[in-house]
Amino acid sequence: MEQTQTKRIVLGITGGIAAYKAAELARLLVKQGISVQVAMTEAACHFITPATMQALTGRPVLVDQWDAADNGMAHIAASRVAEAIVIAPATADFIAKLAHGLADDLLSTMCLARDCPLLVAPAMNKQMWANAATQRNVRQLIADGVQVLGPDSGVQACGEEGMGRMLEAEQLVKDIMDFLRNGKSAGTVSPIPDISVRAHEKEPSQPQTRKLSGKKILITAGPTYEAIDTVRGITNRSSGKMGYAIAQAALEMGAQVTLISGPTAITKPQGAQAVDVQSAAQMFDAVKQHLAGCDIFISVAAVADYRVAHPSAQKIKKGSGNLTLELEPNPDILAYVANLPNPPFCVGFAAESENLAEYAEQKRRAKKLPLLVGNLVQQAIGSDDNELVLFDDSGRQTLPRADKLTLARLLMQRIAQRKKGALQ
Ligand SMILES: Cc1cc2nc3c(=O)[nH]c(=O)nc-3n(C[C@H](O)[C@H](O)[C@H](O)COP(=O)(O)O)c2cc1C
Hints:
Blueprint: E1 8-13, H1 19-31, E2 35-40, H2 50-57, H3 74-80, E3 84-90, H4 92-100, H5 106-112, E4 118-122, H6 126-130, H7 132-143, E5 147-148, E6 152-155, E7 161-165, H8 169-183, E8 216-221, E9 226-227, E10 233-234, H9 241-252, E11 256-261, E12 273-276, H10 280-290, E13 296-299, E14 306-308, E15 327-329, H11 333-338, E16 345-352, H12 356-367, E17 371-376, H13 377-380, E18 385-392, E19 395-403, H14 404-423
Parallel strand pairs: 1-2, 1-3, 3-4, 4-5, 8-11, 8-13, 11-12, 13-16, 16-17
Antiparallel strand pairs: 6-7, 9-10, 14-15, 17-18, 18-19
Helix pairs in contact: 1-2, 1-8, 3-5, 4-7, 9-14
């Protein structure tokens, strides 16, 4: 098909307070030479008028699916000439519709009938965002190959503070332009899901905008192994799956990833610089060696708290009495990094078997971490699925149960958002 110079997008506006930001978004996109076709839900028209959007884009706005525009086929025609549909703001309601394939108005029908990528910029009150239903729906969208841009955290229109603000128009323009440049043309986007395959069974290739391009991320993963003698040792049941998934998600977002891993049986993500270690002391050395220029440090490894004080150079022979091993504490790698004079953005993991919230928050404060991710060992260790609870200065947020790659992608998006200002 013939390529035209002008790129065209459908800008879908749904009924949230952030709809006013869509005017600025449309203006900036037009300024970038993008041809913008606006489509609005009925609720969106309560927040901003189609007349404003028409004036800014120079095109009549699509609202009513029973209109005669495009021979009454606007729901099909609009996406056929578009590089992407961008929903900004995307309400909780609209996200729910997308996740379930509902098509009861022009914009939702257009999304279901599209043959181009879909990007959504959620905007809602923090409780609506944190609600398990919304989180489930967002996860479904990501699994379906939809690009989720944001949200951000901060003061909300309702006066509350937390996660759910729509990204600012300038950031959205940047993400959309990146996507138009690298996404579709680079062939990395599979916008229409293969409905015969469940999302978590597919290859982990869901695209993310490359928000971490040029950033250096150091990740530790897996267990450590503390030798008792030449053949025996103390280790734990960490599989490395969560840390490896985080490395994969960071690579998808364009980061330069160094993965320092204890002994695992799983395959390293392609593109990461892999460093294999055994003991906590070796992991500590490797971290110190690779810290220079690091923007983000994510400590996922289950590092042994103690090591054998005097490991035997020979295999210990069986005796008739008890055997006592003296253990000494290992270095606290995360605390060391977090307390450097100019530390990278440090993310810790806490695996607890009880009192998760209390212990995790204690650990976060003791180590002075901006972000700590808590999980329950019973749910996390070795399994393919997990549930994460994020603790930071604004409180806690749950990423509901999902496969580890889906969770890793959500987590990396949060980390990128939180670090956005400082990393630019
Ligand atoms: C004043 C007001 C502000 C609202 N702001 C939001 C919002 O920011 N995000 C959201 O998801 N829903 C918000 N809602 C609720 C949506 O407008 C409502 O769910 C509506 O049905 C969404 O329709 P749509 O998804 O078809 O656009 C708001 C409602 C009112 C009355």
